[in-house]
Specification:
Number of strands: 8
Order of helices and strands: EEEEHEHEHHHHHHHEHEHH
Shape: globular
Strand order of the largest sheet: 1-2-4-3-5-6-7-8
Largest sheet: 8 strands, mixed
Number of helices: 12
Structural class: alpha/beta
Radius of gyration: 17 Å
């Protein structure tokens, strides 16, 4: 994944950062999703480091940094520690999926540290107030694994780690616009755990949503997948509107557009990357 650096959190936790790319411009800081999924699943983000260096924070609950999250609101302090270690006053922050909550938390609590945002396939119902429309997307899919994945998503929450891993495996097909060998290979990369996932949502202020919606944000790009069953489509559109963000929907892609539609992903993200250098 590239060269490693270690930032020091206020409580002494060592926060791993991996860097790649050789651009002289300050790196794009990347916050992975999952929540707390090993960031190896990000790959090279369709070659993003070819035009801009990239620094990926291994958040608490991932294997290298370890521990568990203190909740996405409070883990903003870890992101600040990472920015300090990287020598960045204000950073261009790219976040995927659950990591978009951390990106918004960082921006609201430390507005002087975020210069611009790119929020990739964000879970959106919690912020937009628009119901999930994944049922419509599933109805258009022929693969039986996709219907089974969606049914599992609507079922009871796993109660232990073994059940969590079984559900994670069953639900993987819902994350992609297609379920071919390419997607199946990617689904095997980057694990996550029940304990880390639950901790991500601990101790979130009751007014976090309202604080985010009231806050002035820096220039913000939202990238969605037009076939993303995990987030739906209507909630992502409403999310971008509520944030006053520019929206780019990637056709024929699910939750990981850089995997399924790398060229289209780069067309969407490159203007943000290059304009913020």
């Amino acid at each position: 994944m590239g060269a490693a650096e270690v930032a020091q959190a206020a409580d002494g936790r060592e926060l791993w950062i991996t860097r790649s790319g050789a651009s002289d411009a300050p790196p794009v800081v990347v916050l992975p999703g999952g929540p707390c999924r090993h960031p190896e699943y990000l790959g090279d983000l369709a070659g993003l480091a070819d035009i801009r260096s990239v620094a990926i924070l291994h958040v608490r609950g991932t294997p290298k940094t370890g521990g568990v999250s203190r909740g996405w609101w409070h883990d903003a302090a870890d992101a600040v520690a990472a920015l300090d270690r990287l020598g960045l006053g204000a950073a261009d922050v790219l976040a995927h999926s659950a990591g978009t909550r951390l990106a918004l938390s960082l921006t609201v609590q430390h507005p002087d540290r975020v210069r611009s945002l790119a929020l990739i396939t964000p879970p959106s119902t919690w912020l937009s107030g628009v119901d999930h429309d994944g049922t419509d997307l599933v109805a258009d899919r022929a693969e039986p694994e996709v219907a089974q994945a969606f049914a599992s998503m609507l079922g009871p929450d796993p109660v232990d780690e073994a059940a969590f891993q079984r559900a994670w495996e069953r639900e993987q097909p819902a994350g992609y616009g297609h379920w071919t060998e390419r997607e199946k290979r990617h689904a095997l990369v980057g694990g996550m755990s029940l304990a880390a996932s639950l901790a991500w949502f601990d101790d979130i202020p009751a007014d976090a949503r309202e604080r985010i919606l009231r806050a002035p944000l820096p220039p913000t790009l939202v990238v969605g997948g037009a076939l993303d069953i995990l987030t739906g489509v209507a909630p992502v559109r409403a999310y971008a509107e509520r944030l006053g963000a520019r929206l780019e929907m990637i056709p024929d892609a699910g939750h990981y557009p850089w995997v399924e539609q790398p060229a289209a992903f780069r067309r969407a993200i490159d203007p943000w990357v290059t304009s913020s250098r």
